Every structure is written in structure tokens, then in C-alpha cells.
């Protein structure tokens, strides 16, 4: 939270300790550098990260956010349709239980077969016994005494000439689903393994929004100039660094994990195929769970009982 205060007739941003900590966690810089960046950016987190990068203080490490929920992700294929889904539980103990695994498999199979548009619609899907997904989840909750939920899913379609490939890492903590035009299922599975391991953002550089590329190019240019590089070589440096940036977020441009001498795009092309789409789920990504201070909680209970 950023508070506004008046000083010398001007409105200034009051930077909280929480905001400083958040920026430090994102960039691994020192406390004073983080505070200085936030002051310069008037409390705007994204502008503060750019400030640090332009000054060469931080490289803005990519963070996936707080990951604290448990559960499993799964992939199911039904003809030319495939579904990837995430079902959550409160603890990893329940997530590794066989009944929970069966629940996850059954729900994902139903989604692939019936292709619902939303989670609410998916909860109404029924199996051959007339039991709805919602009923199945309630039954699981009653057995485990834990909250179980269908968090999200995506249905992916392909043509007869396309192939699906999927991969589950660590029993379903990460699930990846890939669609290739041409090639074969073995190639598609290898790409899915790469997606699970490297976590690209886009299929190719053509899918990256122009604003994102322009913003990155501008930041890289300021970074190079602030390093004292001559202007006549800055453009070449920026293009080189931009290529590296693309190799980090574009699946097609990434070095293939099974053969770093070629990109993923080159690998797929060598098998007679072309990248079309991918989906990657990591269980709990983006879910922020309150962190409790056990000592403080116990102390509060002791003092409260007096």
C-alpha cells in the first residue's frame, strides 16, 4: 500500500516496509536500493523494477508468484479434444492419496469428453452413474475433511493432421499439453517435457504483444546507455539482448532441453512438424496463502487465555 503525504507543498509517496520487501523479493537488491527505486517510481512496482534494471542494479528475475496450494494437475485426451485441469486440496497428504488421484482422473476425463465452457458448467457434468462432478468433490471432501475444488481447466482442440503430446512432472505437480502440426506423438511429448521444465510464455515471437517488445527494447537501451556504452554500438547490443530475452519467453526460440545445440522450433521442424499451441499448469501457481507466525500465534493464544 502506498500512502500519500504532503511535504513542502508537494504530494509525495510514502513507501511502506511491505512494499520494499516485495521489491527486494522480486529483484534480490538491497533494502536501500529497493526503497530508492520505489521513491523514484512513486510507489509503482513495475516502474521500480524498470528503474533498477536501467541502473544495472538488478536483472528483474522472473518470479512465478507465491505457490502454496496443493493438489494435482492432469491431462486427458478424447479423440481430437484434450483437457488439462487442476484440482486442489489443502495438503499434499490428501493430494497423494489414491482416491484423490482417481477423482482427478475422472474429472479430467469428463471435461475432455464433454468440453464444458466454464468451471460452473464443469461442476454440473455427470458420469455414467449420474453423479455430478460437484457430488464427486463433496464426497471427497467428506472423506478427507479437507476442502477440495476444481480450480481451472482448458479444453484444447486439434485437427486430424495434428498431434497431442502431454507430460506430467512429479506425479502431476506440473502438467503440460502440446499441439503440433505434423510430426508424431513422441516428438510432441518431448516438447511437452520441455514446456514443463522451462515454462515459456508464448509459442513464438510473433505471439508476443508489440507493446511488450517495445517496452523491453526501451529498458534494454537505457540499461546499455547507463553502462556507459557508446551510442553507435548500443543498438547492436540491444538487439543481441533482445534475442536473449526472446529465447527466455518464446517456446520456438528456446534452446531445446534435450539438445541445446538446436532450438525447440528447429527440433520440431526436423521431425516434419510445426508448433501450434501449448498449455502449462503448475499446481498452486498464483495462489497466495496467508503465512502464519507460529510463535506469535501460540503467544497470542497463551495471553488470550489469561
TrEMBL record:
Alphabetical list of Gene3D superfamilies matching this protein: 1.10.286.20, DNA helicase RuvA subunit, C-terminal domain, Elongation factor Ts, dimerisation domain
- Main location (coarse class): cytoplasm
Region Involved in Mg(2+) ion dislocation from EF-Tu: start-end pairs: 91-94
Query: Which compartments does it reside in?
Result: Cytoplasm
Record-level Gene Ontology MF annotations: translation elongation factor activity
Alphabetically sorted, this entry's keywords are:
Cytoplasm, Elongation factor, Protein biosynthesis
Q: Which InterPro entries does the record associate with it?
A: EF-Ts_dimer_sf, Transl_elong_EFTs/EF1B, Transl_elong_EFTs/EF1B_dimer, Transl_elong_Ts_CS, UBA-like_sf
Q: Start and end of every Translation elongation factor EFTs/EF1B dimerisation domain?
A: 82-285
Q: Which residues form a coiled coil?
A: none
Q: Which domain of life is it from?
A: Bacteria
User: GO CC terms for this protein?
Assistant: cytoplasm
Q: Which family does it belong to?
A: Belongs to the EF-Ts family.
According to its UniProt entry, the function of this protein is described as: Associates with the EF-Tu.GDP complex and induces the exchange of GDP to GTP. It remains bound to the aminoacyl-tRNA.EF-Tu.GTP complex up to the GTP hydrolysis stage on the ribosome.
Q: What is this protein called in UniProt? A: Elongation factor Ts
Lineage summary: Bacteria, Bacillati, Bacillota, Bacilli, Lactobacillales
Corresponding gene?
Answer: tsf
